[in-house]
Amino acid sequence: MNRYAICLFLWLPLNLLAQERKLPIDTVITTQHSVTINGNAMNYTAQTGTQPVWDDMGQPIASLHYTYYTRNNVKDRASRPLLISFNGGPGSGSVWMHLAYTGPRVLKIDDEGYPIQPYGVKENPFSVLDVTDIVYVNPANTGYSRTIPESGKEVDREKFFGINADIKYLAEWLNTFVTRNNRWRSPKYIIGESYGGTRVMGLSLALQNQQWMYLNGVIMVSPADYKVIRVGGPVSEALRLPYYTAAAWHHKALPAELQNKDLLEVLPESEEYTINTLIPAIAKGGFISDAERQAAAKKMAYYSGLKEKDILDQNLSVPTSFFWKNLLKEKGGYTIGRLDSRYLGIDKQLFGERPDYNSEITSWLHSFTPAINYYLQEELNFKTDIKYNMFGPVRPWNNDDDNTRDDLRQAMAQNPYLNVMVQSGYYDGATTYFNAKYTMWQIDPSGRMKDRFSFKGYRSGHMMYLRRDDLKNANDDIRDFIARTSTNGKSAKY
User: pTM of the entire structure?
Assistant: First the structure.
């Protein structure tokens, strides 16, 4: 079947499909829309459909669902950038940044990001569609994307569900997408949120070395760097403190001396203490002197809002789960959110080591789930009975041989055009802003490419764009990044 045909049989009577609930593996539906961005009205085309992943014999082994937006009436499409967007998880659909950050439609939520009814979408007045075309990609088993077959022993999970497998097949898929849509000449950017940060670090080199596709920019949104998060040890443990400072400041749980300052005055103090004092102190382990241990606990309490005794009882290594559970234990008895610590939760009992649930993700699922299902079917006309996987079955995930940080460094060394921007919310307790800074610092130990990195922080959490002020600021930062990394005819050379 022609992939550009309108797929009216997507919703055929069940008896005609032998009661199978499946999507065609290669199809697209096109619709026309308009939006006003930064006060300027514009028309655009939306294409949403599926494109196969093939094995070495040319047989389809998966079909990935995507949504592709192009601005209409563009005279020179070749010079217009293309932004390729991934979310994370791994196992998360592309819904989050699609319907809340860069796309032409955003959730109906309040100005701080909390759900309101009736659920739905509205125009995004800050979308970057005015300066770049955008494609949102759902990796295998996320969104409407599925392996072929969907389940069973026949599924070759090693081809999809691991850091290196994920990067390899997505790079190949993007080659096909760029070829089909005639975007080889366009400046290209990849953006990944959370685990998507790991994904785009690896894709930067895979696209160059396996597909001969060179990028202008990599954007990492609240990136998850597993070389920090899951390693443990003095560095990983100490790097939590500046996030504790930010979250405690937001909840007015810091000493008055700090609370009376602006957040951006307080954080550099906490960062400096972490790098220069706390990491060496924790590194001494059981051989730290009593005086130094007491001094570290006192300073950590000062910068975190926790009790000295609790810090000492945990040998200066305070888990994030303990912080979420106990920061406000005596200040209302609420827990605070993991991905966005502005959010509050109520547990069955005050005592404990961790919250009963993640208050922020339950709040987000309120508004995202109905919105993406409504939007794809009613506005983009993609009719189907299959479930949109907000979080898909991708476990177990193979994290072995993670070289993505060095992959990005190598890609930058090979490609003088390639620049990197990191965006993080200060109140993100899962992939903290200071972890993101540390990752950025470690990518190029030589420091010779540090002028090609930039960091942007926001007064919100993991999905910093849910807060209206940060939705505007973060999109403006992408616009500026694209403008700044435009080559304007400059040769790619050192």
Answer: 0.94
